[in-house]
Amino acid sequence: MKATARAHTNIALIKYWGKREEALILPTNNSLSLTLDGFYTTTTVDFREALSQDVFMLNDEAVTGEAYQRVTKFLDLIRGLSGKTDLYANVHSINEVPTAAGFASSASGFAALAAAGAKAIGLNLSDQELSRLTRQGSGSACRSIYGGFAEWEMGTRQDGSDSYAVPIASKEHWDIRVAAVVLSSTMKKVSSRAGMKRTVETSPFYPGWIESIPNDLNGIKAGIQEKDFEKVGAIAEANCLKMHATTLGANPPFTYWHDTTLRVMHTVQEMRANGIPAYFTIDAGPNVKVLYLPEDEARVEETLRNIAGVTDVRLSKAGSGITYL
Ligand code: DP6
């Protein structure tokens, strides 16, 4: 009863920002992402009769506290689906998602855990069922079941049965690249979970965010099919700015941006003024991800590395979906 799976993290081009139901993780809007090959988690789940509780090792260290609770709660879902509710597991995860790169490891982490856990306990899930299960660990993780571009359909049902990601275009469809720009920041972080909750509950800008989503989604999906980089980049950048604008309206107000975040944003816009098509997007943290085309890689990397306050730049191509090892 043992299985190993690998999942890659993803970067949202149309952001998931807000839940309509917290326990099941049901979002208030559809979102769309690109899976990245540079950052991933490999997880082995081993269910054993002899265990009296779950054990979770991350990068060879035992995990306790809240992170451990999230994993055991998620394993409870897998146990419940299989009917084998009295089995505990050894979970061993290796993260190739440097926290410093500003990617939440929860997306690749829960996708790999769901895939390995379901397989180990003998569930034979379709991609759609696996995405729906993964969603309940961390929302953005449900998109990491697929490679390339994926859309998380929010669904309408209260039981969450129609809320899962679907593939939009494979990584072979279009070679677009992402630079993860790492900043030397020690800012205290508002988690994405807490940040989106506060925004939904208190920001007067939130309804405007929700209203603007269908147009952004239609535009970006057309842009992906047409491989229109300017269109996709411009929509992704504007969507990110709108998401971050909602946090400024929250009570108490907050922002994930740092002075260096703004410097990187300005530099990307300057690159465009100088004829290099590059666009930024930012998740729930100060680090910036920059979208660019392969032919501009050297110039984009050099420009980003030269910004004061930038400590590292990590380049990535589009990645694949779940793989079993
Ligand atoms: C800004 O998926 O981390 O990265 O569902 O509460 O675990 P939970 O939140 P999470 O939120 C991700 C928010 C985001 C945008 C995105 O990835 O779509």
CATH class of the largest domain: Alpha Beta
Q: What is the mean pLDDT?
A: 96
Shape: globular
The secondary-structure element order is EEEEEEHEHHEEEHHHHEEHEE
- In CATH, the architecture of the largest domain is 2-Layer Sandwich
CATH T-level topology of the largest domain: Ribosomal Protein S5, domain 2
Structural class: alpha+beta
For the biggest sheet, the summary is:
8 strands, mixed
Number of strands: 14
In words, what does this structure look like?
- The chain has 325 residues and is α+β, with helices and mostly antiparallel strands.
- The protein has 2 domains: 2-173, Ribosomal Protein S5, domain 2 (2-Layer Sandwich); 177-316, Alpha-Beta Plaits (2-Layer Sandwich).
- It is built from 8 helices and 14 strands.
- The chain has helices at residues 65-82, 106-120, 127-135, 192-202, 206-226, 229-248, 259-273, 297-305; strands spanning 2-14, 19-21, 26-27, 31-48, 55-58, 61-62, 88-95, 149-153, 164-169, 177-183, 278-281, 288-292, 310-316, 323-324.
- Strands 1, 4, 5, 6, 7, 8, 9 and 14 form an 8-stranded mixed sheet that branches. Strands 11-12-10-13 form a 4-stranded antiparallel sheet. It has a two-stranded antiparallel ribbon with strand order 2-3.
- β11 (278-281) and β12 (288-292) form a beta hairpin.
- The longest helix has 21 residues, at 206-226.
- It is globular and about 65 Å long.
- Bound molecules: ligand DP6.
